Amino acid sequence: MTPADLAALRVQAARLGLLGEGREPETGVWEHAHDASARTLSVRVLRALGEVNAGFALHVHGLALGRLLARELGFDAERTTVPCLLGVWGLGRSALPRHLRGLPLDGEQRALLADYFACAQPRELLLHAGDDFERVLLPSYDAETDQLSFGSYDRGALQLRAAAGGHAPDETATFMLARSHHVLPAQHATPAHARALYAQALGLYALGLLAIAAGALAQAHAKARQYAALRVQGGVAIERHAAVQALLGSTTTVRSLSERALYSLAREAPGLEALPAFLSARAELHPRLCRASNDALQVFGGLGYMKDTGLEKLVRDQNALRVLCGAPAQLLRFVAEWERA
Amino acid sequence: MTTSLDGHLAPDHALSIRQAVQQGIGFAAYEPLSIWEQDTRALPASLGRYRRRLRAFAQQRLAPRALALDLDPHGDGPRQVLRDGARAGLLTDVLPWPFGSIAPLSFLRHPLQLRACIKMEELCAACGGQGLLLGAHVLGCAPILLSGDLGAIRRLLLPACARTRRGEPTLLAFAITEPAAGSDVEDGHGAARLRPGTVATRCPGGYRLTGRKVFISGGDLAYGITLFAALQGEGMESWTCFYVRAASPGFEVVRSELKMGQRASAAAEISLSDVFVPDADVVGAPRKGFGLNRITLNFSRMPVGAIALGIARGALEAAVDFAARTTLGGKPLLHYQEVQLDLAQMIAETSAMRALIWQSAQAFTPTQAKASLTKLHCGDRAVEVCTLAMDLLGNHSLLHGQRVEKAFRDARLTQIYEGTNEINRLAVIEDLQETLLARDG
Known about the structure:
The structure holds 2 protein chains of 2 kinds.
Chain A: H1 3-15, H2 36-52, H3 54-73, E1 81-83, H4 95-100, H5 107-116, E2 125-129, E3 135-142, E4 147-154, E5 159-162, E6 173-178, H6 191-230, E7 232-233, E8 236-237, H7 242-266, H8 275-299, H9 311-323, H10 328-340
Parallel strand pairs in A: 1-3
Antiparallel strand pairs in A: 2-6, 3-4, 5-6, 7-8
Helix pairs in contact in A: 2-3, 2-6, 3-6, 6-7, 6-8, 6-9, 7-8, 8-9, 8-10
Chain B: H1 17-23, H2 35-42, H3 45-71, H4 77-87, H5 104-109, H6 112-126, H7 128-146, H8 150-165, E1 172-175, H9 188-191, E2 199-203, E3 206-217, E4 224-231, E5 240-245, E6 251-256, E7 267-278, E8 282-283, H10 289-325, E9 327-328, E10 331-332, H11 337-360, H12 368-393, H13 404-412, H14 421-437
Parallel strand pairs in B: 1-4, 2-4
Antiparallel strand pairs in B: 2-3, 3-7, 4-5, 5-8, 6-7, 9-10
Helix pairs in contact in B: 3-4, 3-6, 3-7, 6-7, 6-10, 7-10, 10-11, 10-12, 10-13, 11-12, 12-13, 12-14
């Protein structure tokens, strides 16, 4: 999918009301993130998109989140904007959870957080997005004032280069991003508001990734079920073999668990209070979603490993979704530190 | 240079492990060595030298082209791998010198599959696909060697080795899988009900073969293929091993698959339309093919475990590299305990895999149970190690140059080929059924 294809699909998605513009803006993903029904609808939309194409779903998710943040921060929300929430590695160890909770950081933690957001010295961050955006929303941290803030930058104002052969979903790209030294972060929120917005964005980012992953597993499961009913081995359809039943049972179970968790989480208002729940759910469920997708591929045997059946892309996409917004072990440590704080 | 990691005592500290062992009794003392070095020194001298030589070859010849070949496996890349491998003796290490490249004493002293396991780990630590390309050649040679048919070895293997030594890398491939039969040809129970798709019809002087084979590693570049077909009008019991020359009229490479990983080695689909195979190119005897296939898999499944181990070790090494050069808060990630814990887990996993492989491969006659359990365990654990490596790197793992996402895709195939891990679990039980029924598991 070329950037032009992605842009054309994005325009169609906007016309359908999935991206907050168009005839029915209230149906836009994350457009009314404070309303439980609207959040549930957003989750359903991302899940449905994920069931067809996880990469495009991720692109819509990123644009919608960027639009929400831009509006909340008073930036121009009509320009296609993607957020780059994470820092150089992981989730900022103990410093980020403590800071989001409004707790004081010692000197070492402040220095780490500034380094994490690439504010202390020139460092590259990674941005995973469809190559169809005009602006990037970047958090910044000032170690001297112990304050988080956001800036919205034209992509031309940033040193942005696409990494060759990246392994985010095929429809998206991985960019190496560096702040230009002359670009200063804008201040469109109080420090407390910035922390709350960051927590909200991180939580919604996690929720959206789960929704997309649940959709991708649904596709994998359907393919595996269909194939297992047709493929004969040893004189019987393989769906009757215990080994295949174990694989299919795994995908069914994880599908069911993840969907229940998803819609339960969608009813929680995103923000500081709910953030541990969102991240815990991702930490626990996403590895299981990956294993279940792998099990679906395994039903196909050698065919599943080849591009033709589409299973290998689903497994690759699940892997990519798992490590965005913090890998499972990083999420667990974040949650533990959040509780300790 | 920093002399210790955060959270650990420096080697010169009075309470450090280094001081403790140096002050201990003689046999308790040891110098700091990598796991790789410790394991290599534990091998018999000739195998240790072999391991070192392979590692050097892999690092110098395979690693530099691994990432590029993963993105674009077409073109001359794979042929260059074969040329380099041939020059290093890796296409002739199935026979002792002067016919092949194995030292005669070593050939007699050490099981072939142990050498194969050491080789596959080293090659695949650099690149799973290139390792497979070179390693699948031994799989192609295996039925000929294991048939015990000295005539076939003389007629088929010696010329192949001679061609390679003359500078024409000569690859053999192994072909059993058919479009309608994957697991069925790896498992007796399934095979008993299978109607074979590739059939050999008797004709003057030999046989004419018709049918298709799929997912043949190296099938696009092979000079010759040890290929299995049933005799006309008979079932799987008549399976016979034929040596099919790729230049034969009627032989065609129909396509190469677009694989998820191990891309440097193509998985080819080949078509046979009345391909003539002379009697001299029947490997073993007619109707002995299924048994020969099963024995071949007994010898090949442990090296597949070693492929998995090699790929996992490559992911571990990439993770260590990443942790050593990536900093946060002014120090390398290697200093953070959470990173150390993950690395330690990967080290433990790969060491356990290696111990299983080397122990299993000690037997000159591998059993199906040992071969299958080694393959399935190592395949499953390799995928877990690669997943852990991806998680350690986080979103950096999605950068191609970090190598761990490629390692995952490469490792994933080890849960499928040489029999899916589900089939291999059943193979363990099949081989132990007499003892299990006698309550002697």
